[in-house]
Amino acid sequence: MKVSYPLQAARALALHAQGLTLDNGSEPPPTRKVLYRLIDRLVSLQIDTLQRVRRTHYLVPWSRMGSYDPVLLDELAYGDPEKEKHDDGRKLFEYWFHAACYLPLEEYRFRIPRMHSSRAGRRERTRTWLAKPETQKLLKQVYARVKREGALRVRDFEDERDERGLWWDWKPAKNALEHLYNCGDLMIAERIRFERVYDLVERVLPDWVEVEVPTYEEAALHVLERSAKALGISTAAQIADYSHDMGRNDARPFIEQLLHRGTLIQVRVEGAAGDDFKMVIHKDNKEHLESAAEGSMKAQRTTFLSPFDSFFYPKGRDEQLWGFRQVLEAYKPASQREWGYYCLPILYKDRLIGRLDPRLDRRTGKLHLEALYLQPGIEPEDVIISAIAFAMKDFMKFHRANELIIEQSRPRALAKSLMSAL
Q1: Residue 364 CB coordination number (10 Å)
Q2: Looking at residue 274, what is its pLDDT?
Q3: What angle do CA 197, 106, 288 make, to 5 degrees?
């Protein structure tokens, strides 16, 4: 074992584990099988409502596969409506992991302990709500109605309150539906214009899915092992960041078990700031790290990354290995934003070299870059501009955009150079 692995090797392994090393244009055909394998590799695919461009659950696969038909993801998650219910091709389900996510159905049984812990309420506010007699009555009524009528949306329930609360105050039926979903009594059968449709588990979950309940320890070890493998390389503490099942302190004894078993291996890595620190890898990634250190495995891809990309889940790793701080500023007042509303980091081979803040005008087909930045010290060399232009052409194709408008860039000449390359 090497005393310390070079920074480039650590970066290459992290990118390889996340499916971000393939050179643009060398991707396999974007089939359902390829898409599923990617999601299984990542363990989860985060779902979010923001849609300045395509929503993040569609964007994350694009970053790795290039243009593909988003219907493929819908069919994996909710089945093909043209097929029989018992064999509709459903391979994913919605549940909590790092956040609301799509997960492979093979992960279902390992989510059951989380479902069981949700029944009594995972937060004090929920426990207080559940303690009210009217809440228990509401839960029974909502469940009975779904059982009787079939799959329902929130809009199918009337809100009988005279007054609504603040804008985030869900109506009672939504609270009930969400709790029943969290507990594993209901599942998301489909989405209609992104709105969740709830139904009984037995009417959604395919018969082939394993439902044997693991112990809490078995589930924790499984999640942490899969997380470590998907991360490629991270500190031991950062493994817990990949899911939100437990905090770093709670995860520590399970990670120590995995280290003791040899499932995880400690290595030393050179950091972006020239420091040297301990990280861990999954045993299955040892060969890949060696290949990266020897230079036979390299990161070749140029792409744009969603701010919700699982690549950024481990807190602080972006600064440790890339000297780059990823931040989502959509929820900040405009006056407090440094970069933009929905900035996508720009990956160039094994470096994070900039950011762009896109907004798609779906009516006109124009893709606006409200800002385009290169990181300090990154020069707009022809080879970099050419690589960004190649990725941008496919990004526009994926969004069916017919025109690119760059509103501002830093350096100022960057916008002109990119437009010329396009």
Answers
A1: 11
A2: 77
A3: 125
Find out whether 232 and 16 touch, Cβ atoms under 8 Å.
Answer: yes
Q: What is the distance between the terminal CA atoms of the chain, rounded to a whole angstrom?
A: 46
Q: How far is CA 190 from CA 150, 166, 197, 384, in A?
A: 12, 28, 5, 41
Is the link from the previous residue into 81 a cis peptide, with omega within 30 of 0? no
Structure token pair of residue 323: 């000297």
Angle at 363 between CA 68 and CA 50, to 5 degrees: 60
Residues of the chain falling short of pLDDT 50: 165-169
Q: What is the DSSP letter of 245?
A: S
Report the predicted TM-score, pTM, of the whole model to 2 decimal places. 0.94
> Tokens for 189?
């059968």
Check residue 271 and give its pLDDT.
Answer: 78
| E strand residue ranges, 299-348 | 302-304, 344-348
pLDDT score of 160: 61
Indicate the residue type of 343. Answer: C
Which distant-in-sequence residues (6+ apart) come within 8 Å of 217 by Cβ?
254
Q: Helix, strand, coil shares of the chain as percentages rounded to 5?
A: 45, 20, 40
From the list 79, 80, 103, 81, the residue with the least C-alpha distance to 92 is 103
| pLDDT tens, residue by residue, 179-235 | 999 999 999 999 999 999 999 999 999 999 999 999 999 999 999 999 999 999 999
Residues contacting residue 161 through CB under 8 Å, at least 6 positions apart: 171, 172
What's the pLDDT at 2?
58
CA proximity to 398, closest of 421, 373, 367: 367
| C-beta of residue 308 within 8 angstroms of C-beta of residue 48 | yes
Q: What is the pLDDT of residue 165?
A: 47
If you count them, how many residues does the chain have? 422
Annotate 328-347 with b (16+ C-beta within 10 A) or e (fewer): bbeeeeeeebebbbbbbbbb
Phi-psi region of 62 (alpha: psi -120 to 50; beta: other; left: phi over 0): alpha
pLDDT value at position 275? Answer: 80
Q: Residue for token digits 């830093």?
A: 410
Of 394, 355, 367, the closest CA to residue 27 belongs to 394
Q: Where are the alpha helices (DSSP H) in 133-285?
A: 133-149, 172-182, 201-204, 216-231, 248-261
CA distances from 62 to 233, 301, 335, 374, 399 (A): 23, 12, 31, 22, 10
